[in-house]
Structure prediction request, 432 residues.
Amino acid sequence: MQNNHFTYFIENFELAYSYKPNWEELNIGFEESCGIQLTKPEFENPFENLDKIIWKEWNGISIPFIMNSSDNESILTKDKDNKVVVNFDIISSAWYLMSGRQELENKSLDKYGRYKYEESIQKKLNIVGIPVVNYYFEILKEAIEIITKSKIKSKRNFSATITHDIDEVMSGWKHRVRTQVTKKHFLKAFKHGLFQPLKPFLPWKNLIELSDFNSKNNVPSTFFLLPRNNKLDNIKNADYSLSNPYIQESITGIKNHGHEIGIHGSYKTHESKVELQNDIKALKDKVNGNRFHFLHYSIQESSEVIETNELKFDTTLGFQEEIGFRNSICTPFKLYNFKEKRPFNFIEIPLNIMDCSLEFSNYMGLSPKESLEAIKKLTQEIKKFKGNICINWHNTYFSDYLKSDWKSVYKKIIVFLKEENCEFKTCSQLIK
Prediction:
């Protein structure tokens, strides 16, 4: 057991509850003399021991202790001297899940160079919908409450960060033409192209509409803008230029409505400090945080890129194929610097839900109705811990062109979260 794992756990525990106890007085450690005695892990790589991992029930949910194969009747035991023993490892297990250690060990990537959900321990153990680390935090919280004979009152409230990646604004008409060509409706395709200058069809030119809707519903939001409109390795960045008058008008309107602008790091900037810096400069706007295009993230390298550029938050880390918890945590946290064995300085806001993850047939392939139910179920897990639900809803999914059902889902999500007494915050507001 490395002490920096314990320090990392403690720092993120404090973030989860906005609470900082006197750790020295609590006397937590691995020695038998400690008031709260922790258990060490039995192995380092859970992938090599999947069939041995111990599962126990905590607050009605079965959770895995991914570094333990030896069973014990209870998770916590208390003796006559008021000493509490945590009978399973929660420190290294939480470190492994939060830090993204598995992404360093497994180099099997998809065709775009992204870590694959199907290779993850979340998939192997079927825990993508369970914020396991927050359950580990709750175990320590209860142990502290037993020792101190007092309740820890979290200063956090259940919250939501509604975010919008703005990839496509100007090319809806081209999409319609291509669709007709694919269907071999060549005459329709020709007419659509011919009459575009006379009767513009721009269904994704809706940033002001989306901003207005959020404002009217008291939903401060974060809009991530792509600075580049080129192609790299045949991957498209934005279909617009930041200098476009409509984009400039939208940026002004977004900010005037109390929303925030973030940087949507262009393709491949996740591996280059200089290239992300160039993107930030191109935006010509003070930004606090980032989400990388295509959800690209290399767990050590991209974290260094974020920290070097002195950004305060990132919100890239979610699985593109599945909603849930890529790092098994539903509260903002700090990633781990494996080189320097310390937490990175910026805050990671876990991305839980993305529209295309729900819809795409090669991802979850859910209908709008099924998607809403899946979101409601995930929300209840997050609410247990006064966590934060982070949603990425593209402006193209707030359009009546091909996505009217999904536009309706978005509106229903907002109504549902209000009914759940959710506090809406921009990403910058959340990390404060």
Summary: The first strand starts at residue 28 and ends at 29. The chain is about 35% helix and 15% strand. Residues 182 and 189 are 9 Å apart (CA to CA). The radius of gyration is 23 Å.
